[in-house]
Design brief:
Ig-like_fold, Immunoglobulin-like, 5 domains, alpha+beta, Glycosyltransferase, 848 residues, Chondroitin_lyas, single chain, HepII_N, 18 helices, 26% helix
Amino acid sequence: MKHIIYLLGIACACLTSACSDDEIPASAVDAEAVDTPEAWHDKTRTQPYPKLSNELYLNPPPLIVPESMKTGEKLQFALSQDEGFPEASTQLSEADEWCMFNPHRELEAGTWYWRYRNVSANGTEEAWSEPIAFEVKPETPVFVTPDFAAFRANISQAGLDVHPRLYCYLNGDLAEARQRVESHSEYRGLVSRANSAMNVDYSTYLNQVTEDGMEEMADYVEYLHQAYLLTQDQTYASKLAEILSLLCGHGFTDSELFVSNFGSTAIAYSLLVPYDVLYSRLSGSLIQQAQDLLMRIARHYFASYCGSQENNIFDNHFWQKNMRILFQIALCLWDKTGYAEEASYMMEYYYELWTARAPASGFNRDGAWVNGSGYLSANLYTLYYMAMLLSHVGQSDFLQHPWYQNAGQALVYNFPPSSKNTGFGDMSERWDVSGRQYAAFADFLARETGDGYAGWYANECSTDDDPDNDVSDDVLFRIYRICRNSTYDTSFPEDAPKMKWYEDIGEVVMHSDLEHTADNLTLSFRSSTFGSGSHTLADQNSFNLLYGGKEVYYHSGYYTAFSDAHNLMSYRHTRAHNTILVNGIGQAFSTEAYGMMLRANGGTHIAYALGDASQAYGGISNDPMWIQNFADAGIEQTPEYGFGETPLTKYRRQTLMLYPDIVLIYDELEASEPVRWDWLLHSPVQFGIDGDTFTTRAETGVAVARMFSDAAFEVSQTDQFVVSPGEGYANQWHLTAAFANSSACRILTVVQIKDSEGEILPVERNGSRITCGDWTIDVNLDPSSAERLQVTSGSVPAVYSYGSDNVQTGSGVYARQYRNSSVLYDEIDGQYQAVEQTDQSPVSSRRG
């Protein structure tokens, strides 16, 4: 279903008094329903991509074959606008071991065809697959990267035929940076870190090889590395040489070398840095030992990653760090005797993989992070490093990818300065403010792209009272900042909207005063086609509310571990989020348990979003990883624990912000048989419950929620978790409004957030009409008749209408074009206008 929007100015003919305000216009029709497939994204790909049923994310798209369809040693691809694949107009790939092909050129708008064939180890070519059609639309964003042959040809020009290579993109800046490094504001921090690394006995890390120990060693190595490159102090070089000799002489067993994938790449990086930076002064035997050990690691992981990573929705460890270090190994060994051909082949694979699936799964242009802002920090350095390196060597700007172009703005909206983040994904609860790594990444984006959001964010964080936010204290980006001594605009963008819809990941964020955190009300809402699993949570159609940067209503629990009992039952589970349970059962941990953000829009006075989580409650996870995690925790995926099938058939939720301080939640719930609906709300402080009204008094203000429904409900609260997180964690409060024994239910919740209790406005109901201050809400809460929600203001001409009636606005009557649509009449882009929306079909990386 296309996104249907009608923008109608004040003088538009459709705003005419000839239509009555309660008449359904004869021209109104039912909009095409959005598909509800088994999944929009596979954890492991099962269908070739792309097909006609896929809307493209980028032009050109990668061509990807599921690993299960690769039956030979290699795959070969053909691409043409003619399904007969004539030789003269067909792009034919080499036969390679991986399951993807990047065209590396803009494709003309129209229908294209591709096919693939398996090739055996001896070169025998099997029959071509049937042609697979896909469509390139003129509006598809274009992002083209050089092919690997061009990338490879630039290596010498990029300074990669000599060592050191790891920071080759800074080679042109290093000489000048060394001249002023001692006067740089970060010099003291640079040498302090390096001097701490000088005093470490690194042999102790090898007494018992652990992931934590190897990662700590790698951190120290990087401190020495940056300090040596900038100061040329030979004591740092000597320490690096000592570490290299220690590692090469250890004689790693397989169990030590592959203790974990993070452990392996930490060992590799601790080897790679001294090997690269000291290459010209090392003995031949030490060089050989280092190369042998690096290649041992590279071969092990290439064998397991090649073919699988292009088909995995997002392997966190791989993209956070492992891919970068494996690429660096290839970068350092591409021209070494005995390794050149193999290392170059690995480099080609990782280059093509980045082009196909980076920077954020390959199916995300939003600039926001599918796994949530809390887990973005683990990815920031690789996101910076790979973009800089590939841009330098490829002589093409990899930061032009839409994700990077939107990343600065996404930081501002999802993790505002002096505020908690919007509350989705693992570890989102851990930090009260974003921290220096986020500010450092914004600083990098501002320097390289000139993005105004990134510039404001970096400056605002650094001038925050919290020293943890200071960019100058960040270590990972330090050498970049010292070398690239540039400035940027730090003013807040004048055209910043109050609402952002992240269509690819399925989240909406609304802010009342984004520039001033102390006065800002933040409403975040998630209904994602990526479902749950990995570092995302079972939280479809959930919302979080912040005021003054602090939690008002927020998801509950603590990230004590990835999959311990508390995580599974009281953090990841749906019961920990501000959404619903059906007969006590939540959403499965899988990409099949998805939501869809179908509509969203906003103006000066009203913003709204509509999510559909009807497919999220359909069973249990069949993912072997989760099955094992449940078994290890002693938990079963049964109704007793809150998992299993439900008779849910419909769960549509709308969230609205009536600026500056009123929020509406409108729920439409249906099931094939009577069920108990548990409406959930979580707070760091206790609720005061007075019938249908719930009050919390927190550090930054007072929140009062009043619930309306034609169905009876009972309200309870507890400060206990189903599974305790253990000692040292504060209790949180969990409210449940239980609607018993009904097959359909509608609920409207009106929330006010004020600085003091005396400012709370009376909320009154008269039939279907509810008033709150200047706002009037006309709502149908009877599930046996048509849906209706209309919001009007007595002080401004803004109107929101959900339903099928015509809409009375300040400029006349808007004749609805579609039944059950959303119409917003508000000041948008500087003028009052009406915008009508029907459900928008999400973009899919799967589709049958």
